[in-house]
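Why run this: before we spend reagent on co-expression, it is cheaper to look at a predicted model of the complex and decide which construct boundaries make sense. The entries below are exactly what would go into the expression plan.
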Amino acid sequence: MFDTMFGWFSDPNMRWILTGSLLLGLGSGVIGSFTFLRKQSLLGDALAHAALPGICIAFMLSGVKSVGLFMIGAILSGMLATFGIHFVTRYSRIKQDAALGIVLTVFFGVGVVLMTKIQHSGNGNQSGLDKYMFGQAASMMLSDVYLMGAVSVLLVLICALFFKEFKLVSFDPGFARGMGLKVWLYEQLLLLLTVIAVVVGIQAVGVVLVAALLITPAVAARYWTDALGIMVVLAGLFGALSGVTGTLISSTLSNLPTGPVTVLAATALFVVSIVFAPRRGLLAKWLRHRRTRKDVRSGLGVQTAPSMISQHAAERGAD
Amino acid sequence: MFDFWIILTGTLVAATSGILGCFLVLRKMSLVGDAISHSVLPGIAIAFIVSGSRDSLLMMVGAAILGLITVFLIQLLQQGGLQSDASIGIVFTALFAIGVILISRNASNIDLDLDCVLFGEIAYVQWDILVINGYNMGPAAVWFLGITLLIVLLVIGLFYKQFKICAFDPALAAALGIPVALFHYLLMGLVSLSTVASFESVGAILVVGMLIVPASTAYLLTDRLSIMLLYSVLVGALSSAGGYYFAKWLDASIAGSMVTVAGLLFLLAFLFSPLHGLVARFSRRRRMKSMTA
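The model came back. Tokens follow.
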């Protein structure tokens, strides 16, 4: 045990991959908090699928397998996808969930067509494309880790810088508009950051699982607190912890892919939160329930009633 | 024959998914189909590990069970007060992750390929032939999908009124004494059955696409449920035939092309639907403006 732990930190390659997954989890946890509050949790799933045609077109145009170019292509088609979702919901009777689904499947379908086209065209250089899609954290190159780390740090910095604005836009866009805030601008910025987080995440955990990095740590964090600032920090911590745990477990046990293990680590944190969180957790609720029953039975019900009401009101206010 | 079997398979998937998709789109549950189609993966993997064979029926059972577990877990989280989109996202990613781990640990050297499960290869449909008593009965997938379509038609046909009321007004349905939860799980059971039946032959994207896109197209073309169901099946069939020839012309993925064509048809309806299209909407607005001016 000690030897393997020592091995992790003495191996420079491992150290970089660990740093990369830590930063990645941190960044997507932070951004995920805002997407969750804006009730757009599944946007990450849609954007991850929508990135495929962009990646393929970037490859077709350039003919080289470069992570940077893939990311630009993916970001462009991700932005096009968010625009499409917005446009369809705004100008037709189609609801947001269906619009999300349409964009997700159609973009992905187009992407698969382009990908098979590339494969059939006999270009020997294409083998990296599907690796990119399914995520290969263990085989990431040092330069990829640098890029991912840098992007994640940038995401966190921007969130810290515009925290107040993002908070207003997420909770009460109408009020924010009334205060003279350029809501549209900040919404676009948040969307752009989400797209970037997704695109960076694809490479580490793959298209399907990238959604989990945005959703699960944020929801887990929500169980512990009502304050957005604390929630964002917690979500970042949970994400970083999942990333590190996933990387460590998959590197010690053979044959375990990093992406899914990372996601399961996040899910485990979520389960712990849902059970043990101080006020909203199942255990706390059950204890409270039992205490109330006991109080009522022993005739203390009358005295405790006001505090219960205020607690109830506090809970209602939090939702 | 080659063309015929593939288009038929695609059309059967499209018809089954199209009918169910209408109810999902109306109930704002489009993405449950997406979730189910991904989370059945561990079911397939467990069935494979337990039995050690690629027996389709067993895998279907495993997958269908996982489909229902997915729906149940999503419901459970929602009842705990979590938003529906977040519940869906947490449940299906976790189950999918378990599926990927199970496959990569236990089945990586065998013929249970992740790419194949996700993308599906409808072009292989005609090589998996069902043989009964030495007779060649045609592709096995066509039989599976045909039976699934019959089951869906039967259930929806029998309880059409109940499903309709549940789709448009669950509160009214409950007030009328219709067991809403039962019909919810019945619908979800059908969705996971059809997802699983289609999955092996055509892959996840085609199933999810066919659940959502043709139904949404139909929703833009009519206000009546019966006609919406009909349009949805027609649009699906058209996408599957058109997609096949598109793929042949491009020499690219058939399933991907079918979804692409379905997307193009949706775009056409979005722009030019006489009832709810963008063009009609704007010309109506302009007419109104000129009348008031």
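Chain A has one domain: 2-280. Chain A touches chain B through 55 residues (CB under 8 Å). Bring this page to Monday's planning discussion.
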